[in-house]
Each structure stands twice: as C-alpha cells, then as structure tokens.
Request: fold
Amino acid sequence: MTMTTASDIEPVHPVDVVIALGANLGDRLAALRGAVDGLRATPGVEVVAVSSVYETEPVGGPQQPEYANAVVLVRATIPVMALLERAHAIEAEWERVRAERWGPRTLDIDIIDAGGAVSDDPVLTLPHPRAHERGFVIVPWLEIEPDATLVGHGRIRDLKVDTTGVRISSDRIPTE
Reply:
C-alpha cells in the first residue's frame, strides 16, 4: 500500500468522500443542517446522500451532552485538502472551538474516506484512523452506502463496532 500526503490527493475524476458530522452544543440539528448546506454551496462538491440523524453518547473526553451525528456522502472535484479547509471554515461559522480533545463542540466535520485514498499526513490521515471503531460513524454510513468498504478494514457492514448508545432520531436533514 503506497502512502501519500493528503495534499497529493487531487482528483482527476470526481471522488466520493465520506464526511461525518457531529454536534452537542447549541442547536445541534441546525448545525448539522448548516454543515450540509455549507458543503452543498461549495464549488466542486456535490452532496450525493445524507444519513438520518443519530443521537449518540459521547466517546472519550470530559462529561458532556449527547451528540447528534450524521454522515454525508459527497462527490468532489476539488482537492481533498481544499475540502478539509472548507470543512474547517464551516466549523468556524458555527463557532467551533478546539480547546479540548474530544471535548464538546458546536460542530465537528471529519473526512472519513476519500475514494479509498491512504494518507499519513498529520493534517489529514486517511482513512480516518478511528472510523472503524466508531458506531456513530459506521451506523449512519451503512445507512447511505451499505456496500462501502474502508481501506484496511474491509466492508463496513462486517465491522464489529460497538453501537451501544447509537439511536436513530426522528430529526432529518433535508437532502435537497
């Protein structure tokens, strides 16, 4: 397997990118919707699918409120680092503060997979190094892409991931 840096990943053709969203401060649903709207408004990014919203218990970090999580599948013709920069800009619009690892947040946007690319870039490791063990990523991803695979881990439907505390919500994010 050839390692590369995330800045080397520039699509010649559209690349499907899996993006995880999470929020546990403020109006969580508005933040998730705002993230999808922000991605949708990004030139070179097409939102292909949006999962249901899931209520999840926090993993690691200090005691904090439950999260609202979702996964978005986008098709990108922009470099993955440009997509990461856009994700950080959307987080900033929602006043994301990076004060504490695994701490509470108004909005978290993580790139999980970018067309199966592998990168050990410290700015963006691909695939996301903990995605395979996170129910709040795998369950919504499975909903929108049931045949997906994760490099180094195989089909996501075959992963033995703890889904305790991952509950589907009646809240929805508009797909259009």
Strands lie at 15-23, 45-50, 54-56, 67-76, 108-114, 119-120, 125-126, 149-150, 154-155, 166-168. Residues 6-167 form a domain with the Alpha-Beta Plaits fold (CATH 3.30.70.560). The first helix runs from residue 28 to 40. The chain has a mean pLDDT of 89.
